[in-house]
Amino acid sequence: ASLAGAQMNLAEAVLDAERRAIVAALERHPKDLALVADVLGVSPTTLWRKMKRLGLRPGGLQDPSGLSRS
């Protein structure tokens, strides 16, 4: 899910990389968020915050309400 053909600034590149890494880990371990956090090297709280900001739910699915801005 990159911005093909468009310039991507650093913040967008970081968000894109975080989203891809989190989604991949959630797909491998859909029922164990603590393990997903461990695999990614972050705390479960940090994982939850990043998922909320990116509009992700367990299983790697995007929240239908869109991106959260909190």
Plain-language structure description:
The chain has 70 residues and is mostly helical. It is built from three helices and no strands. Helices cover 54% and strands 0% of the residues. Helix 1 crosses helix 2 and helix 1 crosses helix 3. The protein is elongated and about 35 Å long.
Mean pLDDT across residues: 83
Number of helices: 3
Sheet having the most strands: none
Beta percentage is under 5%
Supply the helix-strand structural class. mainly alpha
| Rg, Å, rounded | 12 Å
Short description:
This protein is mainly alpha-helical and 70 residues long.
Structural topology:
Blueprint: H1 10-28, H2 33-40, H3 44-54
Features:
70 residues; mainly alpha
